[in-house]
């Protein structure tokens, strides 16, 4: 068995392929208790000395950043452990001041001059300020305050938008396990194309993917004490239920016995053997060491074709998790620690403001702030009674900046988010869309644009027309308009 975890080079950083995740700090502190920072740092130091010297945390993981800061302060000279953290702001204007304040708080709590990897999470892509935030983070990277930029819970479509718009994304942190296999699809293909690596969390489904649960009766959700396990029980239920999950455990157990390892080792090894994955994130249990010894067994064996065939057979008896990575935070079914997030998302103010059309009591309109709307005399969208009509929309951010120039698929994704925000402001949703029209500069780009359309509207299937329109203005590759019939009142 290896004495330390395998390592991988990422943008000049040598990171452990097993990253220590500190989300359990928030779970320990959820009832008001606070972990002593010095004692917590002692525990992290034990991990670091064993080669588990890469730590992952977030702004909302309790005092995890402060504990890690205490550890980093002990390394006055020489190489110190790596600290990856996340910034998860509420949607709103992302000015330079707002972004710098968020980054500076990470620096202060960690006690460093540069965050090794700062990962950005955004709740709703209808709000376009996520690109403003990433571009400001890029400037702060150039200024030396951020070592590398990552994102967390981005689906393939929006990761493509970010990269096509010039953001140097190094990593995307997503759920990836024997139960949740979404990341093995479009996201892994995009990562290979663009050179992005995945940091996989949830690889053990909160501890459910272990020998402990093999053959055990199904736990009742209300009896599960911790946030992490509550979350992954929802994944298990969505993937076909407890018996289907037991099929995965039985397959992993047979493989584990063959190699002389644990079910958890098999689950982690399966994730690490995907080309797109840089590392798996495993929970750091402060003050415990026995799991480190077991985790090292991951690097002492490899899955062979027989092992993979056995797992594939078990997968066939399950249901794939719907959608793409990160959808569990943005649309039903919400598979999160707190469950249904609709109340949180509904509380986010609409991006655009609906206003009545002067002199017409039955009409409302919204503007997206494009420079062309007042010049040409049109609205982004207009509602008349129960019908919303959205103007031909391009991938324009702010007044006049073209997003993702040259990438028709990425532009279509951004446009559909903009259309969704316009309809939302007027009291509707994308489920109300009955007609779309797509205008392409180049008909050969029909497929990436159609796939973007299908990702958003594939379950709704409105009437649609797609035509080649020839040259569009500037760097725009595609323009889309939409119509919706709604019941709700303007927001």
Question: What would your notes on this structure say?
Answer:
This protein folds into two domains: 7-342, TIM Barrel (Alpha-Beta Barrel), CATH 3.20.20; 350-485, 60s Ribosomal Protein L30, Chain: A (2-Layer Sandwich). It is built from 16 helices and 19 strands. With 491 residues, it is an alpha/beta fold. Strands 3-4-5-6-7-8-9-10 form an eight-stranded parallel barrel, surrounded by five helices. The protein has a seven-stranded mixed beta sheet with strand order 11-12-13-14-19-17-18, with helices on one face. The mean pLDDT is 93. The protein has helices spanning 23-29, 37-49, 64-72, 96-110, 129-142, 156-164, 186-194, 227-238, 242-259, 263-272, 290-296, 305-315, 342-346, 372-376, 408-425, 446-457; strands at residues 7-10, 13-16, 18-21, 54-56, 82-87, 117-120, 149-152, 169-175, 197-201, 277-283, 355-357, 360-366, 381-384, 387-393, 396-397, 401-402, 433-440, 463-468, 478-485. The chain is globular and about 75 Å long.
Structural class assignment = alpha/beta
* Terminal residue distance: 60 Å
Q: Mind telling me which CATH architecture of the largest domain this is? A: Alpha-Beta Barrel
> What is the tally of beta strands?
19
The coarse overall form would be: globular
Helix run count: 16
Contiguous low-pLDDT stretches (5 residues minimum) are none
What name is given to the CATH topology of the largest domain? TIM Barrel
Report the radius of gyration as a whole number of Å. 24 Å
Beta-strand percentage range: 15-25%
């Amino acid at each position: 068995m290896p004495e330390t975890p395998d390592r991988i080079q990422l943008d000049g950083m040598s990171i452990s392929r097993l990253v220590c995740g500190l989300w359990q700090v928030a779970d320990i502190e959820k009832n008001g208790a606070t972990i002593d920072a010095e004692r917590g740092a002692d525990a992290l130091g034990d991990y670091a000395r064993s080669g588990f010297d890469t730590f992952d945390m977030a702004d909302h993981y309790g005092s995890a950043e402060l504990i890690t800061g205490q550890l980093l302060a002990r390394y006055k000279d020489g190489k110190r452990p790596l600290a990856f953290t996340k910034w998860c702001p509420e949607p709103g204007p992302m000015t330079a001041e707002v972004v710098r304040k968020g980054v500076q708080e990470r620096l202060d709590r960690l006690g460093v001059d540069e965050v090794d990897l700062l990962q950005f999470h955004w709740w709703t892509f209808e709000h376009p300020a996520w690109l403003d935030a990433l571009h400001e983070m890029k400037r702060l990277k150039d200024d030396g305050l951020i070592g590398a930029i990552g994102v967390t819970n981005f689906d393939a479509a929006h990761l493509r938008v970010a990269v096509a718009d010039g953001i140097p994304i190094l990593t995307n942190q997503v759920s990836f396990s024997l139960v949740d296999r979404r990341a093995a699809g479009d996201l892994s293909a995009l990562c290979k194309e663009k050179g992005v690596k995945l940091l996989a969390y949830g690889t053990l489904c909160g501890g459910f993917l272990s020998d402990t649960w093999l053959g055990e009766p199904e736990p009742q959700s209300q009896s599960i004490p911790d946030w992490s396990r509550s979350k992954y029980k929802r994944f298990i239920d969505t993937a076909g239920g407890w018996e289907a999950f037991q099929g995965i455990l039985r397959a992993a157990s047979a493989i584990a016995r063959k190699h002389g390892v644990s079910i958890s080792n098999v689950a982690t090894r399966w994730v690490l053997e995907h080309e797109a994955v840089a590392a798996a994130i495993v929970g750091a249990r402060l003050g415990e060491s026995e799991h480190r010894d077991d985790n090292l067994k991951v690097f002492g064996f490899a899955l062979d074709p027989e092992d993979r065939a056995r797992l594939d057979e078990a997968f066939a008896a399950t249901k794939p998790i719907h959608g793409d990575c990160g959808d569990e935070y943005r649309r039903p079914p919400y598979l999160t620690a707190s469950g249904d997030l609709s109340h949180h998302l509904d509380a986010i103010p609409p991006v655009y403001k609906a206003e009545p059309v002067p002199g017409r009591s039955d009409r409302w309109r919204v503007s997206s702030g494009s420079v062309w709307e007042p010049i040409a005399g049109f609205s982004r969208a207009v509602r008349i009674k129960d019908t919303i009509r959205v103007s031909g929309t391009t991938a324009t951010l702010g007044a006049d900046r073209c997003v993702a120039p040259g990438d028709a698929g990425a532009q279509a994704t951004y446009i559909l988010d903009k259309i969704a925000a316009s309809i939302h402001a007027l009291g509707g949703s994308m489920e109300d869309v009955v007609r779309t029209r797509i205008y392409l500069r180049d008909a050969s780009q029909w497929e990436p644009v159609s796939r973007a359309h299908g990702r958003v509207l594939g379950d709704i299937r409105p009437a649609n027309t797609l035509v080649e329109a020839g040259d569009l203005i500037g760097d725009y590759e595609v323009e889309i308009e939409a119509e919706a019939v709604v019941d709700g009142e303007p927001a």
